[in-house]
Amino acid sequence: MTESNPLQETIAVKADHLYKAFGRRPHEIVKKLKAGKSRADISSLGVAAVIDASFEVKKGEIFVVMGLSGSGKSTLIRMLNGLWDTTSGTVTVGGTDITGVSAKELRDIRRKSISMVFQHFALLPHRTVIDNVAYGLEIQGMGRAERLAKAQTIIDLVGLAGWADNLPSELSGGMQQRVGLGRALAADTDVLLMDEAFSALDPLIRREMQEQLIELQAALGKTIIFITHDLNEAMFLGDRIAVMRDGRIVQIGTPEEILTDPANDYVAQFVQDVDRARVLTAVSVMEPVRSVITKTAGPRAALHTMRDLQTSVTFVLNRDRSFAGIVRDRDVLKLVKAGETDLRGIIRDDATSVSPETALVDLVEPSVESELPIAVVDEKNRLLGVIPRVTLLAAIGNVSTNTGALPIVMPPATISVSQITEILGETADDTQIDAAGVHA
């Protein structure tokens, strides 16, 4: 028996060099495309809807395929569940190659492994909500009592409690789409395909459905492949995004990667109007901490650091490198004059700290309310970097902070260098040894 590959088991869906051509001689079209001909070159023979598409979708991932009308995204998703045969290339679902399998095998794969939510709901009009949701289970041969109980659980999960006995015609568009989503979830397949599933909904309802989809995915761990032409929807939903143009995938990456490092001018133009504040996160824009010391460093070490960097504030770390707070130059200066050697009494919690995953939109208010950079900390409260206000505003506005000089990342000093140097000289004591400061 061949041993399974653990890495392979993490892949839910794999597309390998997929082509789909329509016309009288589709295989000739593909042959010419593989030889280097363009989509326009073969137009007299037919239409090349998908050209050499390859990607892998990990288990539990929301993978979004995004593109304008005619880019090939809907054709691509129909090949992933066998609605359309591939002209060339293979599709693997859960480790099983579904390319060219018999109709019976394909039906079994759909029942067990992959289900689909369509743009226009595709509900059965004369069946109630609960019977629509349970329809896939009925096809699987599940008993009535069991399938209705499971369908009711799903109905509650998608926010339709109390509507089980209503007909689709009695529901709003958003509620009908919840029924379609519930039917796909009730089938309990590993992979869920969604083709422009929310595009027919009003904007507010559409946002609610997007948020609910993310909540459901987090709770159920489904692998979701989502097709959309809406960039903001793609950025909001996708763990990774594949951008399509003229039948080809031109870039695959996380929302941040596509936004900050577009593969070509087309992608750059495509994402230029996206709401960057809702896509970019703290970790993508943070800067290294320049002024930082350990809590065990004495006041003199802290004052030296602030003098050398000409800043009025320095960040303080605990022994385990976790973030303790900040100290200000005037407070440190008082300790130095008094001959004190312990910083702990003046450490303040003025600085806002956030996780690396925090969206920039959530940083605007704390940034405006404080002169201090925002501290970015990990799950153990270790200081990873800082986000000065100028960096935050530049990131949101897609403006470079590189002006040929070092960016100001800390508040400027409120005490002159000469004054600090004078105080350090007056209070110097060969018997007093401060713990070393830390410069990062």
From TrEMBL:
CDD domains per record: ABC_Pro_Gly_Betaine (cd03294)
Gene Ontology biological process: glycine betaine transport; response to osmotic stress
InterPro entries in the record: AAA+_ATPase, ABC_osmolyte_uptake_ATP-bind, ABC_transporter-like_ATP-bd, ABC_transporter-like_CS, CBS_dom_sf, Gly-betaine_transp_ATP-bd, P-loop_NTPase
Pfam families associated with the record: ABC_tran
Gene3D superfamilies in the cross-refs: CBS-domain, P-loop containing nucleotide triphosphate hydrolases
Keyword Transport among record annotations: yes
Alphabetized UniProt keyword annotations: ATP-binding, CBS domain, Nucleotide-binding, Transport
Gene Ontology annotations for the cellular component aspect, listed alphabetically: membrane
GO molecular function: ATP binding; ATP hydrolysis activity
Location of the ABC transporter domain: 30-271
Similarity section: Belongs to the ABC transporter superfamily.
Protein name (Swiss-Prot/TrEMBL): Glycine betaine/L-proline ABC transporter ATP-binding protein
Organism: Cryobacterium ruanii
